[in-house]
Amino acid sequence: YIGIDVHKRLWSVSIFTENLHHKTFSQGPEPSILKAYLDKHFSDGYEIFCAYEACKFGFWIQRELQSYGYDCIVINPADIPTTNKETSEKTDPVDSRKIAKALKAGMLRGIYIPDIEVEAHRQLFRYRKRLWGDLVRVKNQIKDKLISSGVGIPREFDNPYWTKAFLHWLSQVELPGSSLRLTMDLLLNQYHQVNRLFLDVSIEVRKLQRQKRYKEDAKLLRQIPGIGPLTTVQLLVELGDINRFENFRKFNSYIGLKPMTHSSGDNDRKGYMTYRSHQGLRSSIVECAWTAVQHDPALLQKYEQLLSNHTKKRTIIIIARKLLSRIYHVLKTKEPYVVGLIQ
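User: That's the sequence. What structure does it adopt?
Assistant: Structure tokens below.
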């Protein structure tokens, strides 16, 4: 049983057998180095079980260890059992031993690992999202320069839409000081570069739903009110295989549209939404719920009923959960969405 604490320059590795702690050591960041050590110190009769935390290094380590015939899982760091002493005296060797001991005790469950193609599609979609964040930031910087200079935006341009006319006005508007004008020109140049890249990536992201592996599910998802082309792609690449969720309860647990609970004795309390969630998908489903209530009479009726006892914010979360249930049903059964069906 091998626990690996992965870092850029060194890995901390702890090896346990059924009966003893074999060794904890540091090695270079390559699976082949670990394989060489195991080949030297253990015979062919041993089964090898490995685990490491999900991190920025992705799944290539898992895939390479699997290719050696090892059973390797990637785990959510929050699921590793931890003592107070391990928390207060945290080091890489402590972390690797903690993973190995929990793996040996059968207390760890691996996360879902997509195939290489789906993982690449997922990265493309997330890159588009980062570009959108960059675009919003540079827009805010440009507006901040106008505000700090006391330059008002004309009424016809004072809206969220950046038209060619507005961009032309920004390039010509008089600003106090030559350096401020230079700063504005540089920011506008940055805006055009990021916007051009964002549009190119958006085209490639939209193309994904037409690929053979996604085409059927994409068509089903687009029939659901509120689910647009970008949310469709996000659902397809982030979920991977819907059949990995045995039921809706586990699917919802992954998305995170459920409250935290605390039950002890006679007390049974429910609190805010769980912090364990897929933040990107949860946020997108809630946004889609606002559109869905405008186009699905059944969801609109339920929304209006709930408003008598809940705030709008709480009500839309309940609607989002119902929408999520319908998404799960459509993907699981391959049955088209029926507008107006009360569930």
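The mean pLDDT is 92.
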